[in-house]
Amino acid sequence: MIIGRIIKDFPYPTKICPYCFKELVVVNAIHWEDDKYQYKALYLDPNPECPVYDEGARMAYARMYYSSQDAYSAFHNVKIPVQRWEREDLYTIYK
To answer: Per-residue pLDDT averaged across 58-76, rounded?
Structure first.
């Protein structure tokens, strides 16, 4: 069974934007119910000054992260629900 949510206080690894070198924010994740350390997570860059941020499209740098090769095998075809994140939402998560 798959759990689709960010787990509070879970030790998601820190990821850095390769363009602005700011820390990315986990905005959604899916985990195995029996082993929460097997997961797929979506990271976004909350930095409005990032050179790849597109204000018109409201698109930021995004990165998908898999916790292991097994997680990739299990989750690579599983879609993560993505909502449109406003800058204010990312700042709230980021702080």
So the answer is: 88
| Contact in structure between 1 and 74 (CB atoms under 8 Å) | no
DSSP string, the chain: -EEESPPTT--PPP-B-TTT-PBPEEEEEEEESS-TTSEEEEEE---TT-TT-BTTTTB--EEEEESSHHHHHHHTTSPPP-PPPPHHHHHHHH-
Instruction: Tell me the torsion sign for CA atoms 13, 52, 87, 48.
Output: positive
Distance CA 29, CA 85 (A): 15
Q: What is the pTM of this model?
A: 0.79
pLDDT at res. 80: 79
Residue 94 predicted with pLDDT over 70: no
